[in-house]
Amino acid sequence: MRIELLIGLELNDAELYAEYRRQMTPLLLQHQGDFGYDFVVQHTLKPSNSAINRVFTIHFASEHWMESFFNHPEYLQIKARCFEKSVTNTHILARYQIT
């Protein structure tokens, strides 16, 4: 069963985050994953403890493919090189199955 995550990020370096996306997308596609909706947030009406400025969905063909992707050594290297330096906070806003 297909799984999708709704993610909110607080970016501190949009250019480096774009490089992260560029580098990881081929691996994501190889793991039967892809991005769905993708928003840049300019104004938050009800703030929480962090300033989310990017919201997107990411989906995979199954839980197995998702776990395989997020634990893949190449992904972990890209994450350390680009994601961790460009993102201040990460929030998984929702996780659901799609039939």
Question: Can you walk through the features of this model?
Answer:
The protein has helices at 14-30, 63-70, 73-86, and strands at residues 2-11, 33-40, 54-60, 87-98. It has 99 residues and is an alpha+beta fold. The protein has one domain (2-98): Alpha-Beta Plaits. It has a 4-stranded antiparallel beta sheet with strand order 2-3-1-4. This is DUF1330 domain-containing protein.
Describe how the helices and strands are arranged.
Blueprint: E1 2-11, H1 14-30, E2 33-40, E3 54-60, H2 63-70, H3 73-86, E4 87-98
Antiparallel strand pairs: 1-3, 1-4, 2-3
Organism: Rheinheimera tangshanensis
Protein name: DUF1330 domain-containing protein
InterPro entries: Dimeric_a/b-barrel
Order of helices and strands: EHEEHHE
Task: Note the total helix count.
Answer: 3
Count of folded domains: 1
Using only C-alpha atoms, the radius of gyration works out to: 13 Å
**How would you write the strand order of the largest sheet?**
2-3-1-4
Poorly predicted regions = none
Q: Tell me, rounded to a whole number, the average pLDDT.
A: 95
- Beta-strand portion reads 35-45%
Protein name: DUF1330 domain-containing protein
InterPro entries: Dimeric_a/b-barrel (IPR011008)
Organism: Rheinheimera tangshanensis
